[in-house]
Amino acid sequence: MKILLAKPRGFCAGVERAVRSVERALKRCGPPVYVLNHIVHNHTVVQTLEDQGAVFVHDLANVPQGATLLFSAHGVGPERWIEARARDLHVIDATCPLVEKVHREARRFAEQDYAIVLIGKAGHDEVTGATGWAPEHIQVVFTEEDVEHLDLSADARVAYITQTTLSVDDCARVIEALRRRFPDIVAPPSDDICYATQNRQRAVRLLAVEADLVLVVGDEASANSTRLAEICRAAGRESHLIGSAAAIEPAWLDGVDTVLVTSGASAPEALVKGVVEYLERLEPCTVDEREVVHEDVHFALPKEIG
Questions:
Q1: Alpha carbon of 30 to those of 37, 67, 293: distances in Å?
Q2: 8 A C-beta contact, residue 216 and residue 194
Q3: Residue 39's pLDDT is what?
Q4: Which residues contact 296 (CB under 8 A, 6 or more apart)?
Q5: How far apart are CA 130 and CA 121, in angstroms?
Q6: With pLDDT > 70 as the criterion, what percentage of the chain qualifies?
Q7: Of residues 42, 39, 80, the one with CA closest to residue 61
Q8: What pLDDT is recorded for position 87?
């Protein structure tokens, strides 16, 4: 069997920064360090940090007065900052800088009194956080059909922003639907979909055509991981989103000569290694790592612990 390893894959700079922030906070402040929501959408990463003393909460009421609190890579709205200050919490902001860019755009468009369309998945942590910066201005859409149901007049001043982890192709179709309905709609100054999301999607598009089966390592809660599997299915390739090698069903491999293995931006490389080792135990394999796009992006740690 031939194993194609897509590159780039796995941790993006924002996820790496967020995970390192928790680890640094634990060393400097000592456990427990409280984290609002999951630091990233990956169970293995969360469990590893819990074992080191991180405590993940969904409500700041569960954080003791004066404790250390870290905001995750997905970001939060201003109401969370207000609540944290009221509880005298020592806040470490690990929001991805690319998500912060979307927050700034939301504030700027709101200050200019635009109606803002946020393209993203309602309820996703990132979308909830971004909406909080301009709640009276923002409406959320995810599909072309959603665009038709927007409660906006034809002559409204409209701008759009996007969740950073969307499918590039799906987002483009929604943007086109917005432009058909609102010809004068204003775009953000630069693309909101993050470089890592675009690079991983580009890699699987180019490599999936060589594979009989695609295995995407990542959690179901991870938007960018889910999109990778969807892109491969749309290209006519059998594709499965798996949390680890333990999720692989042997029947998937029947008659398969080439497997493409990749991972979402929140999946640690150890899980990919585990998948490769599992396949190698089944039968002799060759491993061919293909770099489609070179990545060399790093973000500085938050100023509170940098």
A1: 20, 11, 39
A2: no
A3: 87
A4: none
A5: 12
A6: 100
A7: 80
A8: 96
Enter the tokens of residue 89: 């919490």
Give the residue from 103, 290, 130, 117 showing the smallest Cα distance to 200: 290
pLDDT tens digits along 206-238: 999 999 999 999 999 898 999 999 999 999 999
Q: What percent of the chain has pLDDT over 90?
A: 92
**What does 164-191 look like in DSSP terms, one character per residue?**
TTS-HHHHHHHHHHHHHH-TTPBPPSS-
What burial class does residue 189 get, using C-beta atoms within 10 Å of its C-beta: 0-12 exposed, 13-18 middle, 19+ buried? Answer: exposed
What is the token pair recorded at 186?
């204003």
Distance of CA 108 to the CA centre of its chain: 23
Residues 256 and 279: beta-carbon distance below 8 Å: no
Given the structure tokens 């929501």, which residue do they identify? 37
Active-site residue list: 126
The DSSP bridge partners found for residue 139 are: 117
- What pTM was computed for the model? 0.89
The Cα–Cα gap between 111 and 154 comes to 21
Strands of the 68-71 sheet, one edge to the other: 54-57, 33-36, 68-71, 90-93
φ, ψ of residue 260 in degrees (nearest 5): -95, 125
Question: Which of 36-40, 259-263, 298-302 is predicted least confidently?
Answer: 36-40
Q: Whose CA is closest to 33, among 65, 70, 61, 66?
A: 70
Instruction: Note the pLDDT of residue 293.
Output: 94
Could you give the count of Cα atoms lying within 13 Å of 255 in the half-sphere of its Cβ? 2
Q: How many residues does this entry show for the chain?
A: 306
In angstroms, the CA 125 to CA 71 distance is 11
Q: Would the pLDDT of 278 be above 90?
A: yes
